[in-house]
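Lab meeting, item 3. Inverse folding demo.
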């Protein structure tokens, strides 16, 4: 992989290191941050995980040592320090880490993205980007090996959870022999898959299940069932007292349909519609999302379109059908 040496050089010469991820972080971002932070601490670095917002309670079991700080908490501790290095995981867009973290990255002596999302060549040339990795967590596992840091149970669970989430429980086509090899090592360090699965997927409340039921009962497909979609209105989310983040996985349920090539979720947000796309692996929804003004992975991508729900659904499905031909 390109740029590993660059990464190792940066670690070698840096002492105060900030590790951040995108806003509304998922378990891949958080798990990668925590694992990397523990590894750097074991190398006697002053490593800090800092995000724009406080960690959501539901993820706190991944952070037994309370390493994850909000920007405000970090400011109280380290406001006078100029970081030697800022590492940003699971995104390669600086604007996605939030305004305060962007300032920290800007004043850092160095900064580097560690990520697996597609990006412009200019970004890939100087950062650590590998789109073949199923999760940023998988890439971090490779880096830990290069750093000579062994897994332990505290570090293995966040890393395993990062991979679990970003592969949709090993169902996405991004899972490779290499992914499972790392998973095998993580299990040897004490991760129990059933318990790890339950901690992240088995903690929902009944209102979540009812919203899911309502949405799935209204799922639609085109004629040959190659495209399936669900719709989430702001009213539904409010009525069920649901968190947006909780609805992200709804779209995956459509992938169990026999003939489905592309599944979509249309979510109303103000005067925009967030359109998420997933595929079972035979169709590149990343390219489709790009054509619709967004982007993402081959199997998981998204875009945001201005307009009313009905129009956006009709136009988008029509465009996807054309692209499928
Ligand atoms: Mn990821």
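The presenter then showed the designed sequence:
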């Amino acid at each position: 992989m390109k740029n590993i040496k660059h990464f190792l050089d940066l670690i070698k010469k840096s002492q105060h290191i900030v590790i951040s991820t995108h806003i509304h972080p998922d378990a891949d971002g958080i798990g990668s941050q925590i694992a990397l932070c523990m590894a750097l601490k074991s190398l006697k670095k002053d490593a800090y995980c800092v995000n724009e917002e406080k960690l959501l309670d539901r993820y706190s079991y991944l952070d037994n040592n309370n390493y994850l700080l909000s920007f405000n908490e970090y400011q109280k501790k380290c406001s006078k320090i100029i970081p030697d290095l800022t590492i940003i995981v699971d995104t390669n867009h600086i604007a996605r880490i939030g305004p305060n973290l962007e300032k920290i990255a800007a004043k850092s002596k160095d900064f580097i993205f560690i990520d697996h999302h597609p990006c412009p060549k200019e970004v890939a040339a100087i950062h650590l980007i590998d789109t073949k990795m199923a999760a940023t967590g998988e890439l971090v596992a490779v880096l830990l090996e290069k750093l000579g840091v062994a897994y332990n149970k505290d570090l293995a669970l966040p890393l395993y959870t990062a991979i679990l989430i970003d592969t949709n429980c090993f169902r996405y086509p991004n899972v490779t022999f290499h992914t499972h090899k790392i998973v095998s090592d993580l299990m040897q360090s004490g991760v129990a898959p059933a318990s790890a699965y339950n901690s992240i997927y088995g903690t929902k409340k009944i209102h979540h299940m009812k919203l899911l039921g309502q949405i799935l009962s209204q799922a639609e497909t085109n004629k040959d069932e190659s495209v399936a979609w669900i719709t989430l209105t702001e009213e539904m989310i409010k009525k069920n007292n649901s968190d947006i983040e909780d609805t992200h996985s709804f779209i995956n349920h459509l992938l169990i349909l026999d003939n489905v090539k592309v599944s979509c979720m249309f979510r109303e947000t103000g005067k925009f519609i967030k359109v998420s796309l997933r595929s079972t692996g035979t169709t590149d929804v990343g390219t489709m999302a790009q054509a619709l003004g967004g982007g993402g992975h081959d199997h998981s991508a998204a875009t945001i379109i201005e307009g009313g729900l009905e129009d956006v659904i009709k136009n988008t499905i029509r465009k996807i059908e054309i692209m499928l031909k």
